[in-house]
Amino acid sequence: MKKICLLIAICATFFANAKTHLVGSINEANKLLNTAKPMDTVLLKDGTYKNAVIKFTNTSILFAAEHPGKVFFEENSTLSFGGEKNIVDGFIWQKGGKDLDTKSVIEFRNDTDIANNCMLKNCAIIGYNTKDLNTDNKWVSVYGTFNRVSNCLLKDKFNRGATLTVWLDGVTEAHHTICYNYFLNRQNGPNVDNGLESMRIGDSKTSFTNAHCVVAFNRFEQCDGEIEIISNKSCHNSYLHNTFVNNDGGLTLRHGNNCLVDGNFFDGAGKEDSYGVRFIGEGHVAINNYFYQLLGSPRNAFRSPVTIVNGLVNTPLNGYFQVRRAVIAQNIFVNNNLPNIRVGSFSNREGMTVEPDTLLIENNFMLDENGAFKDVYEERTKPKNITIINNTIIGKKMNSTNPGFKKLNEIQVKRDGFISIKDNKNNVLASIEQRIILKNNLNAGANWVDPVIVKAINRKKYSIVASNQVGPTWMQ
Questions:
Q1: Mean pLDDT throughout 220-247?
Q2: CA dihedral 153, 158, 164, 165 (to 10 degrees)
Q3: CB 3.0-4.6 Å disulfide test: which of 64, 71, 301, 405 passes with 345?
Q4: Among 266, 180, 185, 276, which residue's Cα sits nearest to residue 228?
Q5: Res. 441 pLDDT band, cuts 50 70 90
Q6: Dihedral of CA 267/270/271/275: which sign?
Q7: pLDDT class of 14 with cuts at 50, 70, 90
Q8: Count of C-beta atoms within a 10 Å radius of residue 114
Q9: What stretch of H or E contains 14?
């Protein structure tokens, strides 16, 4: 009891000594951010700051706007911070970026001082594009370990360079959490094929690093930068309950192995190049996802709701590794351009002939209300060791020649928005409440998920994240 009382007294003294500093210039901010004591708060006065370069390394510092959303950084302002347990909160970057060249707007490092256990939240970057739209720069560059980016708005990026990038060192498990952010209107200003992702985790050089990052409850809307809205380039990441709506793109497991795509909602909203998930590599699992009105299948071999890609013979790190041990189970497909699942896709690249091996396609539900006429399943390359069982098709003209897809011709169905699908006897055929956990695939995904995110999932099969549920809380 004496030890407990002593600990309480020490903590009380520690917090009592913490100070709040209100500063009105960038010079003052830089000085205090680097010299303040742990648990101190540095507030930057409301207003507009141009060409502000903020760099600090410290421990347990809160750097925040005097009033959230009332501090604006413009022209070529940047923020770099390192250290432990620091929080950056409530700022807006706008009306700038033209002369940043390849610099990131926000970096989780200060030169060689890396940030760990730090947080960026309630911030916005809007239209902060370089003068030459071919210049590759990132808006948010995440280094270190156990960092968090939450409730941020990243809007109107047009120049080359992923909007948010996780950088890996090839050895360290990153364990970052990226949640409740709003990625809006990511466009392709230079009109090129690559380098305009909304999010990239790793790169080809570090693609076999076990990153263990969690991307959850984000909304990606009008992200037309390129085919890969999210480009996964590392191992053991979890993509949980994100919403993709009105995008000419999808989620690509481009490099790396053992990633989990669980409970996401994909709504093509009529975009011609919209798709869902593309598989490359080993041990990936896609379960509990909802694929709706995705139209890319007939236009591009890589743009089906679910696409499993061929490997490249003697592939380099930046090539195409063979798909092995892939699972596509317990997903819902509604009103997509067919096929819903395409296996063995390849481009014109020479040597892209290594067939997928060991696939499980099980217990998926497919509904068409528009009279689509085509097979729901397509093999462009015959895979090895494939199991297709207990998949259900409902649609007047939709069909499959594969016996693993059972067509129910006589059932009349009623779809209650995106909540449930019932037959004419009111039996539930598919529902947001029918979450499945595949116990025999526990190796896929991150090995730790924030309990707050686990609680938010709360047994839901998938989530539809609205625009007023993401981005800075002062905007909601």
A1: 98
A2: 180
A3: 301
A4: 276
A5: low
A6: positive
A7: very low
A8: 21
A9: helix 2-16
Alpha-carbon span 122 to 150, nearest angstrom: 7
- The per-type count for the chain, helices as H runs and strands as E runs, is 3, 45
Which of 19, 25, 26 is closest to 61 using CA atoms?
19
Handedness of CA 202, 207, 213, 219 (dihedral sign): positive
Q: Is the pLDDT of residue 12 over 90?
A: no
What would the two tokens of residue 126 be? Answer: 């809007």
- Across the beta sheet with 414-416, the strand order is 414-416, 420-422, 428-431
Q: Are 424 and 430 in contact (CB under 8 A)?
A: no
CA dihedral 152, 219, 76, 43 (to 10 degrees): -10
Q: In one letter, which amino acid is 37?
A: K
The 10s digit of each residue's pLDDT in 458-470 is 999 999 999 999 9
| Residues 55 and 26 sit within 8 Å (Cβ to Cβ) | no
- Answer yes or no: is pLDDT of 10 > 90: no
Tokens (6 digits) for 28: 């003052």
Tokens, residue 178 = 């990226």
Q: 280 with 440: CB under 8 angstroms? A: no
Look at the alpha carbons of 453, 239, 222, 193 in this order and tell me if their dihedral is positive or negative.
positive
State pTM to two decimals. 0.95
Distance between CA atoms of residues 285 and 289, nearest Å: 11
Q: Please name the residue that has the structure tokens 């947080």.
A: 119
* Nearest Cα residue to 188 out of 164, 161, 165: 161
Q: Rounded distance, CA 358 to CA 347, Å?
A: 22
- Report how far residue 186's alpha carbon sits from residue 184's, in angstroms, rounded to the nearest whole number: 6
> Closest by alpha carbon to 384, among 311, 276, 330, 305?
311
DSSP output for 242-297: -EEES-S-EEEEEE-S--EEES-EEE-TT-TT---EEE-SBS-EEES-EEES---T
Beta strands in 13-162 (DSSP E): 20-23, 41-44, 47-50, 53-59, 62-65, 71-75, 78-84, 87-89, 91-96, 106-107, 109-110, 113-116, 119-121, 124-126, 140-142, 148-150, 153-155
What is the band of 16 on the pLDDT scale with cuts at 50, 70, 90? low
